[in-house]
Amino acid sequence: MVKSTYYSRQRLPLPQPAAKQWLKKHEESCCLSEADRRGPFLAPTRLLLAENETFTHSLNFTELKSLPGPSLIVFDLDFTLWDCGGTWCDCLSPPFRIDQKRIVDRTQRHIRCYDDVEAILDYCNQQAIPLALASRTEQPRWAKELLDLLAITHRFAFAEIYPSSKVRHFSALRKDSGVAYEKMLFFDDEMRNIREVGDLGVTAVHVANGMTMELFRAHVDRF
Prior knowledge:
Helix content: 25-40%
Strand content: 15-25%
CATH architecture: 3-Layer(aba) Sandwich
Radius of gyration: 17 Å
Strand order of the largest sheet: 7-6-1-8-9
CATH class: Alpha Beta
Order of helices and strands: HHHEEEEEHEHEHEHEH
């Protein structure tokens, strides 16, 4: 039986300079409503700008949605963006720590992003493509902590991280981003997720052995 876990919306620290350039082009997508979405699960991550921060940009989110290619790229976490020592992040053993520049859990399992992930995220930043996360992990707090330790939290404008059908994740992403399912591109390692999200109209791509640039570019370029 899945236990319900409640999260309150939190304001994240301001992104690093590299992310600010990205945010200049997506102010509308990042400045989300402060109203909490009620329900048994709330995404633990929301990227919000500080109240005194203002940005100018040459390409707003509305314009982006009318351009060719995906308007939102969504990634699963386990076995897609990261390798948690050959298991799922909710099977790890906290506390997590950095040991000689490696992120490990209590049993010394090594948590890392797949080799091409940094380059993929950089490519999306350069192309001004907003990113999101959709994970059904049963330990959202652990996932959030690992994202912070890996220093990639700021890369994502939206995050739906809680145990649920991915249909619920994508319903929230569509509502929050305003992007139609048909303009979303999704990468996940589980076929059940590929099938149910694909049925929504999302272009869903199966990831067999972690994200690679070859797989990513093949589907972005022909979107």
